[in-house]
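Reading group handout, session on sequence-to-structure problems. Before we discuss, look at one worked example. The prompt was deliberately terse, the way you'd type it at a terminal:

> structure Trafficking protein particle complex subunit 13

The input record follows.
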Amino acid sequence: MSTTPQGIHSLAFRVMRLCKPSFHVEPPFRLDPSDLFVGEDIFDDPLAASNLSSLLSSHVNKSTDSSDMTFANRFLLHHPSDAMGFSGLLVLPQSFGAIYLGETFCSYISINNSSNFEVKDVIIKAEIQTERERILLLDTSKSPVGTIHAGGHYDFIVEHDVKELGAYTMVCTALYNDGDGERKYLPQFFKFVVANPLSVRTKVRTVKETTYLEACIENHTKSNLYVDQVEFEPAPYWTAKILKADELYPADNLSTGSGGGIHNYLYQMKISSPGSEQVKAKRSSILGKLQISWRTNLGEPGRLQTQQILGTPSSCKEIELQVLGIPSLIILDKPFSVHLNLTNHTDRELGPFEVWLSKNSAHEKFVMFNGLQTMALPAVEAFGSTDFHLNLVATKLGVQRISGLIVFDTIEKKTFELLADVEIFVESD
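And the output record:
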């Protein structure tokens, strides 16, 4: 892992990663005491099975005697948890191990004097170098280590929050006076690679005015990750609500499992800010970002923040028409009224308007205006709306369609065909 410098030096760096120990697992070759004396067929005889505990009691009591120094019972299965092989012991890290994005890298560094004389005025620096930047972790330039005696050492601990994937190099340097007074420079390099513990895949779908964000989080490590929090931070002008299939099982405090464990999260997003900010939100492709925090088996924390999640910008209509009410009973050749709402989504006043039913259609229309064929509407202020009623008449029985409603802005000379087909049922008198 380290690169040894050229030349002869009195000093040398040794680097050890500091991390939690792991559980020591013994091979679970353990036996149930009853298997040593009887076979499975003993349970075929109810009388023999009922006397099994008394037959084994003397042996079990002897095997659990603390004065028995032969450890003859070390392979006996006394409790179901014994089959897991946990010995109750912890093992210190035996290698540098895998380092993942979002963790805190902690290292114990020792600079050793292997010569037969002391070195003086030692200036030590420790840096982390990535593909993008170089970060200083320790610098004793202002307070050099006075002396490191022959066979002695100077130890220190450095920490760094890992926020970048790829190759890392820890650069340890020492500038010191050797035994003969010569000023020497010692550089040593320790390389490691940072991997991604999680992958986050997202899918965005918009239904009418509501946007849905699905996030799929997958564990790429070889151990369990216990998720503390998965929180979506929406961009300005947006609000987000997590949708859960079952409120009894919240999205937090779940284990992703090891090596490919997956959890899915679904968020409902809506535009929260009125006015011109609403238009900005609709036209922006930035939805927000995810904050994910977790812990490993022994509580070591990790935290990741995704990049901004992008979605397809919503098409921002200048005006929108909605049907608020239609009579439940519509009689042939008798007038009826339809209640409508016209909304202005722009930051300027629009109108006045003229409203009529389009005559350009491949099919004959059987719903038309009752009376004047054009209706006048007043101007609508910025981000405002107005309600109005259309007086219509149906000329044919059965299911008919109200379609092709034209709204014409008399000032900007724009024409909008807004109303989708609305079906009605026409009855006879």
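Points for discussion. First: The CA atoms of residues 30 and 75 lie 5 Å apart. Second: Residues 247-254 have pLDDT under 50 and may be disordered.
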